[in-house]
Every structure is written in structure tokens, then in C-alpha cells.
Amino acid sequence: MVGLRYTRAKRNRVGINSLVSIIGVAVGVAVLIVVLSVVNGFQEEVRSRILGFASHVQISGVGRQLADWRAIARIATQHPRVKAAAPFVDAPAMLFAGDAVRGALVRGVDPQLEERVADFGRYMRAGSLAALKAGEYGVVLGSDLARTLGAAPGDKVTLVAPQGQSGPDGVSPTLAQLTVVGVFEAGFQEADALLAVMHIADTQALYRMGAAVSGVRLKLDDAFAARQVSRELLDRLPPEAFTTDWTRIHTNFFAAVEITKRIMFVILALIVVVAAINVVSTLVVMVTGKQGDIAILRSMGASPREVMRIFVVHGMVLGVLGTLAGVALGAALALNIDVIVPAVERAFSVKFIAKEVYLIDALPSALRAADVIAVAATALALSLCATLYPSWRAARTAPAEALRYE
Predict the structure, then answer these.
(1) What is the pLDDT of residues 367-378, one digit of tens each?
(2) Listed residue (83, 143, 153, 75) closest to 113, CA to CA
(3) Global confidence as pTM
(4) d(Cα 406, Cα 403) in Å, to the nearest integer?
């Protein structure tokens, strides 16, 4: 009762100090929740976009070629977690259109099978993957690649492949004129600026691969089971085939994001530490100003432990109120970040997210209960620690000394 009453006190600046302490804790908690939610959203958004083009599991052969890919795909699809398989050919190339030239990664796919393992359809901005026909040498370009080349659906681009023909003057590179039949925009630079998709039969012909492919892409019922499935498939496949999964291909990126999240948690938790120090100062001021009250309570029979509990309760009330306010504010901001950030960008004519740097062009957010609980628990623990010294100091107050000059 006394601890709660002190929280509402108006005299001797106790009330304003308590309010400042609550605001400090609330701001620290809110900032920590928002930042962690943004990091989570960034990680999930990039993962979903990468998995739209990168397979869950990829089977390749020695020298980046698989001769009998159908047998490989048949073995792979017998695994209960594999939902679909599709062959692919990956090869480097140079693309020309007028005076524009750009290096590209050509990916040959079977349009019907590819739609089962990738999400090309949801990213198409013009045309469709089905427009790729064997023998017609059509190509679907990433949006940034198409913009650099100045190419739109219906335009022609020239492909230069390093595999060429031997002649009296040496090896001449292979040239082919392609027709742009579609443009996709995945939202991350690696695909939009580099990827050119062709029919697998045309790619095999240009790169003189015969019936061989670079590998087989697999889609699983659960992307997070990729590492386990990859190991299990390796025991079933012939010796010349090996597997890899998306967690290994992009392991450095996602590990960096996870480490960044932990570091940011520690750094931003210092805001809560500063707020907890403010709680310490508030309680120290209160203990100094309440020496007479403490002495009277001790004279009435209150034990040092009971006096200590009064100030622990008061400090914890500040911490709990600040934490609850911070959780509410942080959750509200995190859930509406997609509205708040564009509004700020329009108001100040700035751009916070550059797709060339961050792979995505909007600030995502994913609020997780585990993060909220961790932040709230950290704030409450720091608030409790902040109450211990001032409460201990109050409990040591000697009644005679405190009342000598009253």
C-alpha cells in the first residue's frame, strides 16, 4: 500500500520522477520490440523471395552436369517429403540490346515443371513463363536487367555464350538472338538484375550440353526440413550426384542476419539499462526525502525487511508500468510499420530502404511473441535489480539519526 502510494505522490518531485522513469522504460522496451520485429520481417521477407527462385534442395553432378536427370528425379520424388522436381541449366552469358550490354546468369527451365518448384508466376510483371517454347528462343528477364538493356516484351536481345565453335581462327563464341517474352520482378537484386530464364531445350542447344542438365531442383513440404532431406537423399543417389540445400547456399547471409539481431538486442537493451538507472536515481531521491517517514515506520515496529519491500514494490511498479506501456507501444508500431514508414518517407522525401543494398524495397515487420516476452522479461529483471540498492539503503536508516533534526 505504501509503495503504491509513493508511486502516485505529487510532492517533492516524486511524482514527476516516477513518470520520467516509466517513460524511459517504455521507450526502451518499445524501441527494442520494433527493431527486433523489423529484423524478423527482413529475414522472413528475404527468405521467402529467395526461396521463390532458389530450390529447397538441389541435386547436381560432377562438372555441373547430370546426364540421366530423369532417373535422379525419380529417386528423389520417392522421398515422402519431396513434392516436386524440375531440371535446370545454369550458365553465364552476355546480353546485348543496342548499345547496352550486361552480364547475366541464364537459367534453362521446363516451364511446366518449374512452376511446381518455384513461384515465378507471382512475380511476373509482363508475359508468363508458359510463353517459353522449345525452339523459339524466348527469354524472360529480371526487371532491372530488362531496364538496363532497354528491353520490353517483343524486343530482341543478343546472347553471347562462352561455349563456341572451333575454326581456323580459333574458338568463336556462340551468338543467338532471343525474343523477350516476359519480365519478372522478385524484389531482390540478385534475381532482378542478373537472371535471364529460357526454355531448357534452347539452353542445352546453345551451350552444347546434349540431353544433360546442370541439376535437379526439389520442392519440399517444409523448407526447414531441407538439410535433413538433403542428407537422406545423398544415401539414395548414385555416387556421381551430390546434394545441397538453401540453408547452405545462403548460410552466410542468414547467419549474418541472426548475429546482427543478437548484437542489436544487446546494444538496444542498453536503453533499458539507462532507464533502469533512472529508476535507481528516482528511488535514491525518494529514500533521501522520506527519511522521516522511514524513521516513523521503524519506530512503529516496521522491520528493515518491510521497509525494503516498500521501495522494491515502488520500483517494480515503475518497471511494470513502463514495460506494459512499452510493449503496447512497440507492438502497435511493429504491426503498423508498413503504414508508418511510407508516411515518413513521403513527408521528408527520403528513402530508408534501397533494394540495391538490402535486397528488398520496403521495410517489413514480423512481431514474435518470443521476442516480446524476452524484452519484457529483460526490462522487469533490470527494474528489479535497480530497486535493490536504494531499498537496502532505506532499510539501513537509523530512526534516531533520521529524527534528530525533525
Answers:
(1) 999 999 999 999
(2) 83
(3) 0.68
(4) 5
